Amino acid sequence: MKNNIISLKIMLLLLLPLITSCHGSYHDYTDALTKSILFFEGQRSGYLPQDQRMNWRGHSGLGDGWTVNVDLTGGYYDAGDNVKFNFPMAFTTTLLAWSVIEFGENMPPSELRNDLVAIRWSTDYLLKTVSQPNRIFVQVGDPVLDHNCWERPEDMDTARTVYTVDAPNPASDVARETAAAFAAASMAFRSSDPGYADTLLRTSTRVFDFADRNRGAYSDNSNIRDGVCPYYCDFDGYQDELLWGAAWLRRATQGDNYLSYIQENRQTLGADDNTNEFGWDNKHAGLSVLVSKEVLDGSMYSIQYYKESADSFMCTLIPESSSSHIEYSPGGLIYKPDGSNLQHATTITFLLLVYANYLEKSSQILNCGTISVSPSMLRKIGKRQVDYILGDNPKGMSYMVGYSNYYPQKIHYRGSFLPSIKDHPQVIACKEGSTYFNSSQPNPNVLVGAIVGGPGEDDAYDDSRDEFRKSEPTTYINAPFVGALAYFSANPNIN
């Protein structure tokens, strides 16, 4: 009886897109891709270029780094606030680059260029953060003071504190994620700008060594802990980033030293730990998928364990598998408790599509106990998540701002709910923004392409700025979705 119920559940999950399509549901994945990349222009810090398309934004953070005599302008604000947190920014960059590596050929040329521009906006900044030997700048902006104000980025007058880690103090997580971002970006830029790719790769190896020599979590440093926690504390340990950075340098260089690193440090650095998550703080599932490519290509069986780990992760996503334990909402959305839920749905969807490609190119299928899972089935599960986010859900709402006619109007995002500096050039001071935050009116500035935190386990979503976990967009929700949309823009008819 139990098996019948489980089988019925997966059938319903996979049939839902077909059922909705019979009622006229259609998604323009290319349009959604365009918007998902455009979103990053709304997150820009620094001096905005003349071709800035999100034109309600203005220059901001132009003095970042002056207190330490370093130019730290540029980069991205992580979410709806005005702080630059390097840990999630570097992860965002890695995923944007990985999207180009895996799915760049699926992107229209114009969007491939836009994605590379989005990557470079971040890597140019991250290069500045590691410009000094034995030092890494990990954050700009005091989050406590920032979060106590409702200010536009263009007006902010809170402290732009620079948080720094000097050797031998530890910063393995941020440094190695930055190394991963540089290595992945070097591959993304290799054909269009080989000189820049070389710079990124050289810097990646140097930052990789810094992370290995100074092992430990950056949030364990007492001088910066109050600034990075509880926002982007390293909750899951720094060991996964050490392996993640090595895996990316192996991919970018094919160097045997990096292969040996991920072989020899697998157990000591916890590759056997929780592999059932992927995000800015936990790289285990992404690490396993990334490394498994070499195994599936038939060339590197000494790292077979990583493929086995990737297989195990994929099987947890299959409801009829005996190892399934990922929850789905009644409407079919992948659900994991804590924080903004769509960050899990977008990262897992990305891994589903990447792994499906790896399996297909090696003519293999996934074995989940007594059932066999084809690449096509993995893609169907991924497509269900994409379609849910774009509007095939119980509310009929697109959780991407600006896509379709029904999307969140009151997102938790300062620059969106406060009047644009172009329309209201007078300064809006720290507490003056509260009037706009508490307004019942829709946000005046549309942050096109932003994916909000999204609904919970019951598919419920109230369009409210107060519920920041549901209504606040982040760069690391959007970044993996870029790759997923690129795939479906070229392959829209997978059912």
Notes on the protein architecture:
This protein is mainly alpha-helical. 47% of the residues lie in helices and 5% in strands. The chain has helices at residues 2-21, 29-42, 86-103, 109-129, 143-147, 172-189, 194-213, 225-228, 239-253, 256-264, 284-296, 304-316, 342-361, 375-390, 414-417, 434-437, 468-471, 475-490, and strands spanning 84-85, 135-140, 162-166, 327-328, 334-335, 366-368, 371-373. The protein has a three-stranded antiparallel β-sheet. Strands 4-5 form a two-stranded antiparallel ribbon. It has a two-stranded antiparallel ribbon with strand order 6-7. A hairpin with a 5-residue loop joins strand 4 and strand 5. Helix 2 packs parallel to helix 4, helix 2 packs antiparallel against helix 18 (475-490) and helix 13 (342-361) packs antiparallel against helix 14. The radius of gyration is 22 Å and the shape is globular. Mean pLDDT is 92; it is low at 1-24. Its EC number is 3.2.1.4. Pfam families: Glyco_hydro_9. It comes from Anisodus acutangulus. Belongs to the glycosyl hydrolase 9 (cellulase E) family. It catalyses: Endohydrolysis of (1->4)-beta-D-glucosidic linkages in cellulose, lichenin and cereal beta-D-glucans.
